[in-house]
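Narrative summary of target 7.
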Amino acid sequence: MRGIIIKSISPEDMQNMRRLQAVEGYVDLGLFQEAEKELRELDPAWYALRQTQELQLRVLAGLSHCA
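Modeled conformation, tokenized:
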């Protein structure tokens, strides 16, 4: 999400941005269950973003690897 200029942002969008950052951090640490929990809390509209889809795939791959 670097390089995006935002004039105004709603509190809900800010929360969703923080959730995506948390998901990415959890994935980097190998904490896939925590990442999955954060993804479940994400606003469904955010699932259309490429970054969200990529994170979903990384979470699913990590969860299947750990099982």
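Residues 12-66 form one domain.
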